[in-house]
Fold:
Amino acid sequence: MHSHVNALLHCLREITYTPPMPTTQEMEKRPARAWICADGLVHNRRTMSDGFVKPGASSKVEIRRAGDAIAAGTATQRDEEIVQEWRDCHAYVLNTFQNTLRRWIRDEPYVMVQRLKRLRTVRDKLATGRAANVSSMHDLAGCRIIFPDVRALTQFREVFHAGTRSSHEYASSGKYDYLANPKSTGYRGFHDVFKYHVANAPGNAWNGLRVEIQYRTNAQHAWATAVEISDLIDNARVKFDRGTNQDRERLFVLASEYIARNSESMFGAAPDLTDAQVEGELMDLEHRLGVLARLRALSAGAVGVPNNKNLVLMFDNNQLAIEPFKSSKQAMTRRNQIEIDKPDVDVVYIRAEKPNEVANAFRNYFRDARGFLDLLPRF
Structure:
């Protein structure tokens, strides 16, 4: 952990002087390298590329109307395209933040990936009222960092906040602290939301767009992954707290509580229960439902991950397909077409530096719940 702190302090020393953002013409004359500019984030020739979608093709009113149509189930293909375009505008901001986070992480054994929210999930949030309108959704773009334990998570976040000196608005102010206040579903972790803002062109075209940073431990990520896998194989929606199967939802609340207490010396969403009550009720529900047994019966997907940074993952007919692309633009175009052609298919565009980061961060697509099951007793 000392090496982690030293590396972060080294970063702080490096950004004592923050030069102004170079112009596009200046960048073309320089070798491919990174700058930390006055906005506090890392920029390079790739993040400043004209290949990223700029906001402005549709007005905020048009975007809201398209989102409302999706929520009402009356969306046209054009409505879908408008929402896709709005989501894809966030790729520039997302890429800028992930470059910065990777600089802070350096050689630490943390897993980090980035993703733009699936259109299917956007539809679900709008239709269920969990998002008021698509133009103000804070999590269309997200970076996820997975840490070995809570101490590493909290220390990284504290030092990152203290040292970024960023002009970007911190938009969440601890609102999404699911460590201190776990969700009723049992979800635990910490989310930050930042609103992008720079003074200079061309970056200021993306001002006002939000990006969410998710911090999870390995144990918290294992639980969240298991919920998504179980939802897929049982055609359920525990993740979104719909109350359709209260016994099954209760099982995952208890599993989260057991993991929080036994793996992280914390409490979850059921702090009033004794340890014996947690384990006893969990065992009873599993004997009746067999949820953990079904997860245990699955084998990890034997699908190789291509050594490409831009990937589209598609889970269809119980099969995982991975398509690699040279550029983010190609990957997003392919993802958008799949979302229109197959609206019920789980498809996501992700960017990761290493193949193992994909397999670790998106275990739900690989049907790999072993990390979760290893944290629970065998009944």
